[in-house]
Amino acid sequence: MPYLVECLASVEAQTLDPARVEVIAVDDGSTDGTGECLEEFARRAPMTVTVIRQKNSGGPSGPRNVGLGKANGRYVFFLDADDRLGPEALERMVAMADKNGTDVVLGKVEGINRTPPKSMWGKTLDRTDVFSSNIKFTLSAQKLFRRELLERHGMRFDESLWTGEDALFTMEAYLRADGVSVIADHVCYYLVGRDDGKHVTKSGGYSLRFDSARALMKLIAELVPAGDKRDDLMIRPFLITLLPQFGPQFLKDSEEVRRHKFELAKPLMDAHWNPEVARRLKVHERLRLFLVAQQRPDLLRDVVEFVRAKKQAAAVMEKRATRVYLIYPHFRSRKAGIPDWIYLAEPREARAFEGYREAAANSFVRRALRKVRRSLPTRGVGAAAA
Predict the structure, then answer these.
(1) CB within 8 A of 262, min separation 6: which ones?
(2) pTM (2 decimals)?
(3) How far apart are CA 293 and CA 136, in angstroms?
(4) Is there a contact between 224 and 233 (Cβ–Cβ < 8 Å)?
(5) 344: helix, coil or strand?
(6) Is there a catalytic annotation at residue 166?
(7) What distances in angstroms separate CA 90 from CA 15, 17, 86, 121, 164, one per listed residue?
(8) How far apart are CA 43 and CA 259, in angstroms?
(9) 10 Å Cβ neighbour count for 300?
(10) 166, 211, 231, 232: which is the annotated catalytic residue?
């Protein structure tokens, strides 16, 4: 409350035939009148409404699983109580799934006092998958899922995770789905930022983020064979979940917390970090994660300070402008011993520098990566400079 009032109003305003809609509302131990509001909604709403009231579970996984266990419809949609549906959202998403036979539908998200992911809304896609689009960068639960898919694979939210449980669930759905649709030309969901800033995704200690990254990396490794496709997906937990732990906040952390973060990261880096994952990142991202893999917090601080200052790294062009190295801290420092290829800009980043010659650079990058892979005694980048 009071966000729930507008949330329910957005449900009541949907254009999908109310006879085709069931609402299962789980009051997870609220103490602000939520239960009474839901009961009143159930009495007046034109669609079937079931209100379940239970003791607080501490997170969204339990209530979502309870709701999913009661669901009877062909599709399910998880609507958070402080957000709201866009006009015609359910009608459009169901029609998209029916038309294309897809198992998951993403409806365009806009933020209200919050910034939603944006890279996947370039155009409407009748049918795509997690490898052919940017949908891996939106793993929130607010999607339309074909219930038969979820039941066939026994999919439920992991109640042991206190954050990132939706990422695990949605990534599994993407990987198991017979096609995913994207509605990019109509706002289907409004992600609302609470005035008090108390979102579940912002709560909890840093160790919970490592739990989330570990679970998502494990899922990807289990469901996707080693190779380019797995490396493409591993970008998501490395970039969105792990890397922020080694951003500006790292400079404010105590020495004890810094050491603990490196300890938590080590098994993840050893298991899943490799040259092909590294290549897919920008230089400053790659450099920071490389130093995490190398267990070098002393060098990492200098890089994080540089990035926090939002400085534009200078560039050095070599080999007739086919190689662009970005001069972040410790570049070609003998003491630091960081390989040059860590600082080598991929074409998408190098294009910003006038004079860069891309075609020839691509072949060099491929040769460099082959050389790095041959030099590794194990698959991990962490061994490259050992």
Answers:
(1) 292, 295, 297
(2) 0.89
(3) 24
(4) yes
(5) strand
(6) yes
(7) 8, 10, 9, 18, 25
(8) 55
(9) 24
(10) 166
